[in-house]
UniProtKB/TrEMBL annotation:
Function: Catalyzes the intermembrane transfer of phosphatidylglycerol and phosphatidylinositol.
MF (Gene Ontology): sterol binding
Organism: Corymbia citriodora subsp. variegata
Protein name: MD-2-related lipid-recognition domain-containing protein
CDD domains linked to this entry: PG-PI_TP (cd00917)
Family note: Belongs to the NPC2 family.
Amino acid sequence: MEMMQLKLAVLALCLLLPFGRATDVNYCDKKTEYAVKVSGVEISPSPVARGQPATFSIAASTGEAISGGKLEIDVAYFGWHIHSETHDLCAETSCPVTEGDFVVAHSQVLPGFTPPGSYSLTMKMYDENKQQLTCIAFDFSIGFVSSVADS
C-alpha cells in the first residue's frame, strides 16, 4: 500500500512540474550595473502550449521607486527575430513600484499556428524618463501540442 502511495505522489509531482518552471536569466550586458535586478523568471505552463494562455512572471527588485515606464519585448525563433511589442510597465505590475521586491507578470495566448520549438525573449525595462532600468534575456519553448485544431 505504501509503495502505491509513493508511486501516486511521484506521478502527481511529474504532472505538476511542467506547469510552472523557473528558467535561467541572463543580463544583456554583464558589465552594466542595472537599477532593476532580476532574480528569476517563471514560465507557466512550460513548455508553452499553443492556443493556451502563457504567463511570464519576472521577479525583480529595485533600490528606488519607479512611478511608470515601459517594457520592450523582442522574441526570436531559432535566432531569427520574429516579434516585438511594447507594454506600459504599470499594466504589468502595480505602480508606483516601491523600493524592494516586485513582480512583472505578462499573460498572452499564442495563436494555434505558432511553430513549436526554441524561442528566446529579450526584455528591456525603461522608467518614465526613458532611462533603461534593466535588460534581460531568457529562452523558452513552445510545445508540439496545440489545443487549437490546425486547418
